[in-house]
Design a protein that fits this description.
Layout: E1 2-8, H1 12-18, E2 26-28, E3 31-33, E4 39-43, H2 46-52, E5 63-71, E6 80-82, H3 84-91, H4 95-100, H5 109-116, E7 118-122, E8 130-138, H6 144-164
């Protein structure tokens, strides 16, 4: 089974050598969340992975990212845990309670993956389990200043046109010569 993890593109070479290490800061829906110190977070879909990381949000800056494809069959099945956010949603736990309860609710890991599309892996993911890297580029959005300048240019073009043509009829205006 393929699982996915998103990261900044500049970390890929290090990850290829060392694997994915638990407890690293991560992006979730455009904000930083404190991860469980012993877990790496995986998704069952590259799209869900990117959305959860906030790449669908305007709050995340442009840049280069990579989705790592993990061979889930190369991981120890006993180390999978439910995502704390799944526990928070389903069991109405606080973030701290959810982080402390991942072992207690380890049996919910399949539900976490099938219903929430995210799961925690309690341990390191070795480099040999990472079999593909898919680059993602979040392009820079044009700034408000760009659009203001564009609108100003369009307004100036219209005003110039309106001097020569009647805006109601579109007919060329007769200019009286002296």
């Amino acid at each position: 089974m393929n699982l996915f993890h998103i990261t900044d593109a500049d970390l890929v070479e290090r990850i290829k050598q060392q694997g994915l290490l638990p407890g690293q800061q991560s992006r979730f829906d455009g904000s930083k969340v404190e991860p469980h110190k012993a877990c790496v977070y995986l998704s069952d879909s590259s799209k869900t992975c990117a959305l959860r990381a906030g790449l669908g949000s305007d709050d995340i800056q442009y840049g280069d990212y990579a989705v790592l494809v993990i061979d889930g069959d190369r991981l120890d099945p006993d180390l999978f845990r439910p995502d704390e956010d799944y526990l928070r949603k389903v069991l109405k736990l606080t973030p701290a309670q959810a982080r402390e309860s991942v072992d207690v609710y380890a049996d919910l890991r399949r539900d976490s993956l099938s219903k929430f599309h995210s799961v925690a892996y309690k341990g390191e993911i070795p480099p040999e389990a990472i079999w593909q890297v898919m680059p993602i580029v979040k392009s820079r959005k044009k700034s408000d200043a760009y659009y203001r300048k564009l609108m100003q240019q369009r307004q100036e073009e219209y005003e110039q046109w309106a001097k020569e043509y009647d805006p109601c009829t579109g007919e060329r205006r007769e200019v009286a010569s002296l």
